[in-house]
Design brief:
- The chain is mainly alpha-helical.
- The chain has helices spanning 2-21, 30-54, 56-61, 66-81, 90-111, and strands spanning 25-27, 85-87.
- It has one domain (2-111).
Length: 113
């Protein structure tokens, strides 16, 4: 249970960091980031999973780069549902997805098990 709570907080912190780095990626506060982290996880676990299965052949052809497009779209979908979380345009979502995964990976490596 503690691990899940730490992962949730790290995901929210990652969103706040990305909002400061990527122009057009906006979070109004840490509470919005906490809610957005939950919604992003839910959207990725449902709609994102289905889209990744459907577009698997295209992902193979593009050597997995198309999954970045899917991740950007999942961020846009999550932003549509969370008040205080806004992404203006596709490019901020695309670069935000890349930076978000890198920041999240770095924070998880710093915290460890």
């Amino acid at each position: 249970m503690t691990r899940m709570l730490v992962n949730w907080l790290l995901s929210a912190l990652s969103l706040v960091i990305v909002a400061h780095v990527i122009r057009g990626f906006q979070i109004s506060g840490f509470v919005a980031a906490l809610i957005a982290a939950i919604v992003i996880g839910f959207v990725n676990g449902t709609l994102g999973f289905v889209l990744k299965i459907i577009t698997f052949p295209l992902s193979i052809v593009t050597l997995g780069l198309f999954w970045l497009v899917i991740n950007a779209l999942m961020l846009k979908v999550a932003a549509a549902f969370v008040p205080g979380f806004r992404i203006v345009g596709f490019l901020p979502a695309f670069f935000g997805a890349i930076v978000l995964s890198l920041v999240n990976m770095l924070l998880r490596a710093l915290v460890g098990d």
